């Protein structure tokens, strides 16, 4: 309401100053300039809800004045157009342009924040999967310890002192299993989806399952064929699984190459396929290597898993192929 009153005062001032233009003193010329600047600043900084009807009313008033006095009416209308309407439109355009720029900036900030939240959620989900893997591997070993301690406790050639020690060992293993389960339950989000792949599925079985689904896969595994630590083995499985999923989604029908190399110190996994509709991946640093991730959020989870295991990760398009590569320290079984 106040902004409209200010605009009305500027327009009325120009209409009045536009009368009797046959002789314009210097102060009236300066007044035209001041009112033009005021009109621009009003359009730039003071929005009005019904600005066009208001401006149209002023022009109609100027046209009505022409019916009374044509000469003065024409001067008033021309002054209104030149010293109010045009400057006000220029200021209004600049204000709308600035608002569009600010809106675009806020949208970019909001989108970046949403991407950060999505990436953080993916990392938490991957950590939850790692927690489940720890529960499966460590829980199994602790169960074996409890079982063997129970067998020692029942052995006929054990004296009472050793039997009590075996009983305490069995109780400690059971307690450790229970504490591990409770700790991982706290760390694991309730909305993490259960894994859909078979439990303890080997890499060969995973590749064969994908082939049975219709994918063309060239698979090769080189190096030492010794058991891997459970978390490293699970990471290799997850990486191949996610890469095959992305290849099936974004490069349907293209042959996929899966190469696994094992040495005494590390395991290297490389999965590549022809590029189809992969988006341009951003860059991020993982374990000292430059990693670029495209497609869905699964590769972000693989980044987190590889980072937690102390490995390096890279994913990106090169020479017409999209390649995912990871190197994981082998560690001890």
TrEMBL record:
Superkingdom of the source species: Bacteria
GO CC annotations on file: membrane
Pfam families cross-referenced by the UniProt entry: HATPase_c, HisKA_3
EC number: 2.7.13.3
Domain (Signal transduction histidine kinase subgroup 3 dimerisation and phosphoacceptor): residue spans on this chain: 126-191
UniProt signal peptide: none
Domain Histidine kinase/HSP90-like ATPase: 234-330
Keywords: ATP-binding, Kinase, Membrane, Nucleotide-binding, Phosphoprotein, Transferase, Transmembrane, Transmembrane helix, Two-component regulatory system
Any one GO MF annotation of this record: phosphorelay sensor kinase activity
Keyword Phosphoprotein: yes
InterPro entries per record: HATPase_C_sf, HATPase_dom, Sensor_HK_TwoCompSys, Sig_transdc_His_kin_sub3_dim/P
SUPFAM superfamilies in alphabetical order: ATPase domain of HSP90 chaperone/DNA topoisomerase II/histidine kinase
Catalytic activity annotation: ATP + protein L-histidine = ADP + protein N-phospho-L-histidine
TM ranges: 74-91
PANTHER family: NITRATE/NITRITE SENSOR PROTEIN NARX-RELATED, NITRATE_NITRITE SENSOR PROTEIN NARQ
Protein name: histidine kinase
Lineage: Bacteria, Bacillati, Actinomycetota, Actinomycetes, Streptosporangiales
């Amino acid at each position: 309401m106040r902004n409209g009153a200010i605009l009305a005062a500027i327009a009325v001032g120009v209409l009045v100053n536009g009368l009797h233009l046959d002789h314009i003193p210097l102060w009236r010329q300066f007044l035209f300039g001041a009112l033009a600047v005021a009109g621009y600043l009003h359009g730039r900084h003071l929005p009005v809800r019904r600005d066009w009807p208001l401006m149209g009313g002023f022009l109609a008033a100027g046209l009505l004045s022409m019916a009374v006095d044509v000469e003065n009416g024409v001067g008033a209308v021309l002054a209104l157009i030149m010293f109010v309407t045009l400057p006000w439109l220029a200021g209004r355009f600049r204000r709308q342009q600035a608002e569009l720029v600010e809106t675009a900036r806020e949208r970019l900030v909001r989108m970046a924040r949403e991407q950060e939240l999505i990436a953080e959620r993916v990392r938490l989900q991957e950590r939850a999967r790692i927690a489940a893997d720890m529960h499966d591997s460590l829980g199994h070993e602790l169960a074996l310890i409890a079982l063997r301690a129970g067998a020692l406790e029942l052995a006929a050639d054990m004296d009472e002192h050793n039997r009590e020690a075996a009983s305490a060992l069995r109780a400690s293993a059971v307690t450790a299993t229970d504490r591990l389960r409770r700790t991982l339950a706290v760390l694991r989000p309730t909305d993490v989806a259960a894994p859909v792949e078979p439990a303890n599925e080997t890499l060969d079985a995973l590749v064969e399952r994908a082939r049975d689904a219709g994918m063309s896969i060239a698979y090769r595994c080189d190096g030492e064929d010794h058991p891997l630590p459970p978390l490293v083995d699970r990471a290799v499985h997850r990486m191949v699984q996610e890469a095959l999923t992305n290849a099936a989604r974004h490069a349907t029908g293209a042959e996929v190459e899966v190469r696994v190399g094992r040495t005494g110190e590390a395991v290297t996994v490389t999965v590549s396929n022809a590029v189809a509709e992969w988006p341009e991946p951003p860059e991020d640093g993982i374990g000292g290597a430059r990693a670029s991730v495209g497609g869905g959020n699964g590769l972000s989870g693989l980044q987190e898993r590889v980072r937690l295991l102390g490995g390096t990760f890279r994913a990106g398009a090169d020479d017409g192929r999209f390649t995912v590569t990871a190197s994981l320290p082998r560690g001890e079984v």
